[in-house]
């Protein structure tokens, strides 16, 4: 790859290295310069630009990042992962299920040692994650890398060097012990705290029993449980491996695995086995909601990743969880974990199709099914969290075409007013937890699932990318267009035939153009003649 300033005459097809603001538009870095871009730069009096020009042996940043991510997770669903579409040389991997993230640190280090241009970053090993949590990101730093560098990184990748182990023990028995003079509120407080902990892990509390703090009574209670694991919260702290809790496990026919752990708070935890099921003796700090060593053990155990004594011993590094005295205030919550944005597709299908000479263009057969159903299926197959289809009140055939699909339909009773009315109805129907809406026109047959995923991958409010607009390969603006939540209020105020062009025009640096293959972003079919020409181009006669 050659990097540096070049005259405009040599810039076409190269990658723009630094963003340039022009009147009415902004060319962002990473953009492949088109003839239209060159003309705009020339009109602005810019004689040269800094670009990256790829050699024949180079692999562009997006293709390289995608190839490495695929090598790390060749069957992502089986690993509890979802691979996002590449954008700006980055591919994010998200959890698809709750569970423990497991890493092969040596394999990941080997990738990062191949070359500084190819990287992978992850959350820590054994972190409990929720669905949609960002667990890893592959980033190719320059605009392209030599093929041999990429091949060495792929060779270093191990297919199971990262995965999410799901929750496999989803029920638990809780045994509380009480000592003379113990306040009943301590028992209820302990039960509530444990129940809340389990709920965050997707585990149900199957039974709760309260017995005296006595070895025989506790042993009898241990023999009665039938859940996947048993938790003991004693009325008195466990002080020795021969104390009441550990002794009761052995008296019931089980065995003690470990007493004590190098995590504070949480030192007085013990673990054991009884009838093939794990038993965890919780430390007294488990009555409080703050993070403690028992959380780390419990998270692993419910996911079938039972920690060995050596693994518990290794928790000491990083295991000082108490507040440092120099902190101005205690921690109010855990670290903020990035998650995949929740994007809804708004499939606009309320148009009147007046130019179709009596035919309904959205019911035209494409690949042996109505166009509307086909495009809804493509939206459903994407990384979008849900699909909302906006329909007119007088076309029941369109609703029938969607039968059996997991879409939400919204009737735009004022659809005759124009696209603005459909947009307004669709946005108002979105749930409060939706981060962005991808507005997709149902009469654009060349828009496919990978296009939708590419637009979603480009959305990043933290990086100022809040409106993502599709363009043709040569830079002509088109559809779909994705809008971040901050624009929902403006979209909900649209009316009549007023589309969202005014919102896009005022977006400034928050607007990012994403080129799609060929003319997919600008191909809509409004007349029988256009349909006939399109079918002929597809080889349908």
From TrEMBL:
Positions of the MobA-like NTP transferase domain: 346-507
GO molecular function: nucleotidyltransferase activity
Record-linked InterPro entries: Bifunc_Mopterin-bd (IPR012184), MoaB/Mog-like_dom_sf (IPR036425), MobA-like_NTP_Trfase (IPR025877), Nucleotide-diphossugar_trans (IPR029044)
Domain of life according to the entry: Bacteria
Keywords attached to this entry: Magnesium, Transferase
Keyword Transferase (UniProt): yes
Pfam families in alphabetical order: NTP_transf_3 (PF12804)
Keyword Lipoprotein: no
Alphabetized PANTHER family for the sequence: MOLYBDENUM COFACTOR CYTIDYLYLTRANSFERASE
Protein name, UniProt field: NTP transferase domain-containing protein
The organism of origin for this protein: Oceanomicrobium pacificus
């Amino acid at each position: 790859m050659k990097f540096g300033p070049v005259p405009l005459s040599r810039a076409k097809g190269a990658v723009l290295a630094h963003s340039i603001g022009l009147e009415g538009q902004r060319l962002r870095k990473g953009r492949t310069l088109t003839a239209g871009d060159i003309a705009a730069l020339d009109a602005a009096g810019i004689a040269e630009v800094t670009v990256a020009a790829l050699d024949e042996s180079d692999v562009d940043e997006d293709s390289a990042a995608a190839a490495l991510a695929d090598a790390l997770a060749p069957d992502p669903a089986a690993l509890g992962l979802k691979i996002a579409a590449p954008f700006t040389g980055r591919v994010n991997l998200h959890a698809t299920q709750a569970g423990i993230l497991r890493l092969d640190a040596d394999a990941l280090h080997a990738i990062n040692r191949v070359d500084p241009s190819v990287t992978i970053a992850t959350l820590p090993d054994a972190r409990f994650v929720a669905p949609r949590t960002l667990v890893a990101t592959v980033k190719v730093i320059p605009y392209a890398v030599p093929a041999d560098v990429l091949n060495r990184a792929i060779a270093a990748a191990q297919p199971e060097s990262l995965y999410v182990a799901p929750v496999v023990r989803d029920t638990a028995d809780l045994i509380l012990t009480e000592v003379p003079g113990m306040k009943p509120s301590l028992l209820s407080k302990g039960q509530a705290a444990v129940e809340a902990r389990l709920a965050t892990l997707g585990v149900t509390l199957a039974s709760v029993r309260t017995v005296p703090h006595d070895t025989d009574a506790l042993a009898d209670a241990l023999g009665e449980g039938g859940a996947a694991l048993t938790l003991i919260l004693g009325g008195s702290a466990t002080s020795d491996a021969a104390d009441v809790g550990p002794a009761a496990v052995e008296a019931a026919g089980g065995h003690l695995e470990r007493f004590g752990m190098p995590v504070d708070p949480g030192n007085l935890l013990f673990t054991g086995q009884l009838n093939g099921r794990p038993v965890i003796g919780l430390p007294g700090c488990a009555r409080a909601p703050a993070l403690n060593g028992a959380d780390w053990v419990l998270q692993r155990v419910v996911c079938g990743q039972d920690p060995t004594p050596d693994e518990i011993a290794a928790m000491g590094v990083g295991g000082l969880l108490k507040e440092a005295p120099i902190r101005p205030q205690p921690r109010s919550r855990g670290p903020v974990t990035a998650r995949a944005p929740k994007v809804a597709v708004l499939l606009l299908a309320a148009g009147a199709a007046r130019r179709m000479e009596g035919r309904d263009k959205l019911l035209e057969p494409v690949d042996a099914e109505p166009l509307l159903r086909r495009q809804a299926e493509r939206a459903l197959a994407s990384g979008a969290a849900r699909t909302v289809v906006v329909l007119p009140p007088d076309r029941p055939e369109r609703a029938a075409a969607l039968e059996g699909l997991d879409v939400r339909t919204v009737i735009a009773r004022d659809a005759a007013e124009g696209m603005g009315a459909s947009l307004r109805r669709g946005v108002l129907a979105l749930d409060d937890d939706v981060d962005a809406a991808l507005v997709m026109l149902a009469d654009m047959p060349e828009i496919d699932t990978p296009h939708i995923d590419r637009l979603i991958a480009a959305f990043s409010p933290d990086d100022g990318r809040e409106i993502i607009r599709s363009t043709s390969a040569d830079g002509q603006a088109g559809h779909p267009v994705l809008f971040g939540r901050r624009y929902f209020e403006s979209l909900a105020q649209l009316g009549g035939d007023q589309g969202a062009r005014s919102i896009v025009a005022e977006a400034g640096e928050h607007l990012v153009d994403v080129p799609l293959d060929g003319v997919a972003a600008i191909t809509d079919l409004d007349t029988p003649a256009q349909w006939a020409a399109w079918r002929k181009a597809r080889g349908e006669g």
